[in-house]
UniProtKB/TrEMBL annotation:
InterPro entries: CAP-Gly_dom_sf, CAP-Gly_domain, Ubiquitin-like_dom, Ubiquitin-like_domsf. This is CAP-Gly domain-containing protein. Belongs to the TBCB family. PROSITE patterns: CAP_GLY_1 (PS00845), CAP_GLY_2 (PS50245), UBIQUITIN_2 (PS50053). It comes from Penicillium decumbens. The keyword Chaperone applies. GO terms for biological process: cytoplasmic microtubule organization. Pfam families: CAP_GLY, Ubiquitin_2. It is found in: Cytoplasm.
Amino acid sequence: MAFQPTPADISVIITSPAAVKSANGEPSFVTERRVTPTWTVMQLKGKLETMTGVPPGSQRLRVKVPGRPDQWADSDDQLIGDYGLGKGSEIEVHDSRPQAMRPNFTDLSSVEKYELPTETYESLSNSVLAWKKNQKLGRFDPNALSPEEALQKQVEKDRGEVASKGIAVSKRAIILPSSPPHIRRGTVRFVGPVPTIPAPGASRELEQDGQLPQELQPIWVGIELDEPTGKNDGSVGGQRYFECLEKRGVFVKPEKVEIGDFPPLDDDLDELMEEI
C-alpha cells in the first residue's frame, strides 16, 4: 500500500460581509485561519460557526481564489480542497437567515442595564466620591463657595474688568491672546448678560422662569470682527444681541478684551500700499 501524505493545511482569510454596508465597504468580520483541504464543506461550516456565530445550516460559503472566478461551495459533502484553495484565498461566510432572525449584538437599546443606586454608591469606601470626601474637594471643601456665591463673584469680576478697561459699545478692541499674524480685532457692539450662553456652575435651583436672575448673569462682550473669523452673526441660541454679517460676530469674556486705537484691517492695508 503506497504512503499517502497528509494534505498540508492552507492559511485562508475568513470574512463575513456586514448586514449593513459601512461607508468604506469593509466586512464586519475578518480573521485568518488554517484550513485542511480534506475537510468537507459541512465540516468547515461547523468550525466557522464558532468564529462567525452563523449556524452551519444557514451558511453559504463563497470561495475566492486569486486568478479564478468566485465559487459558491453549495455541496456540503464536497471537499473544500476541491475548490482550489491556495495562498491568498478567501472564504466569505454569508448568513442566509432573514434579517429579523439574526441576533444583533451591536444594538444595545434592548439590553437591560444595571444602574447603581445613589445610596449604594455613596456608601462605597473605594469610589471617586469617597476620595473627594476624604480630600475635602469640590462641594466637600468647607471653604468652597456655593453656586450662587461663585456666580456673584464672577459677575463682580466681569464688571470690574469692564470698568477698568473702559469696555464700551463702539470702541475698537482686539481679542486676547493675540500675536501676529493671528490678531483678531473689531468693534465692540454689545456689553452685558447673554442668558442664552449657559453660565458655568449654574444650577436649576437658582433659575427663575428658566433663567438666572439678572444679578447672577455673567457679563459678555459682543464684538463685530473685521474679518470672518467669528462664530455667529451677533445672535446666540436664537436670541439676537447685535447686528453683523455671518462669521463676523463673537462673544468673549471681558478679561479677553483689550481696548485701544486699533484701526480696521483695511486701513492697515491702505497704509502698507502707500509705503510701497
